[in-house]
Amino acid sequence: MSECYINMRIFTVGPSKITEKTKEDLAFAATSGIAEVSHRGEKFTEISKQAIEGLKKYLKVPENYKIFYVSSATDAMQSSIANCCMDSSFHFVNGAFSKRFYNVSKAFNKKVFIDEVELGKQNDFIGVNIPDEIDFIAMTHNETSTGVMCTNEEIIKVKEKYPDKILAVDITSSAACLDLPISKADLWFYSVQKGFGLPAGLGILIVSPAAFEKAMKMEEEKKNKAGLFSFSHVATKLEDKYFTIQTPNTILIYALARKLERWNTSGGIKRKEELSREKYSMLEEIIKKSNLEFFVKDKDVRSFTTLCLSANEDIIEEKHKKAELVGILLGRGYGDLKTKTIRIANFPAINTEDIKELKKVFN
Questions:
Q1: Could you give the CA distance from residue 142 to residue 133 in angstroms, rounded to a whole number?
Q2: Strands 203-207 and 9-10
Q3: How many separate domains does the chain show?
């Protein structure tokens, strides 16, 4: 087997860099017997409770909200639509992953409305009028494919404008990096292989009381399509013993619990956001002096966690080759932008030494 990316500095946006401390957690879980504990036993209850309570503290999740484990962000999209979209959904689309949420709803045969903008642009979240018949609104906080990010204020205003509609927010590329207004929307979800710096295979879905009630109502009316994974069934397992319906990814839940324990005692989400913005300023200065430019021209809507950079294809390829020669792995573009952009992660695992090494490639 090849050595893959051993000793390389990883800037890919997902799966993303894993710190040495997290690698130690994963190794301990694999060698100490944690990987083999019963998911119906007391030890799993202890691990799962630590992870969920740690998330509540770190993300500032209101006490009356529920936290569910899923396998990925796409799984969370499926669960959100199946449990909480009665008839029709409205999707703000500004890239490949927000378009995926739209396609998930279509696959459930919902009546789907879309507000789609040019790649690299941002939706007018407040100016768009959403039809009365819509009962579910989908937003993507940080579009990973383009590097467009909305603001907390826009999320809050959408919910204030449409208080009776379920608002779901995909935070896959901003979770862990930004203090988000969790109480101001109904569904929040992400997968852990980006900002939380863990291997792929675990996602988190945060559910408001309104979303849970909507799922229950849909069950009563025989319109809930989640089957065994309806929110009511999932909650029954979690609330008493922190169990799951499916056999869970115990290793990742354990690693998540350990990471949150460290983060919650070292400044929490506020400190992580401060550090993320400081590192972004370093990256911004490097990019200004390079022959690359930000794909998102409007600085006000530009992500500071997933930087999407553009140039002609020859320059893009040259940067990748030069980076690999000095032990750096850059993220390639996604979808229609695969050969036209470079994507660079600025997640908590990325440190200032990584960025200093990156400077050698970009200058």
A1: 27
A2: unpaired
A3: 2
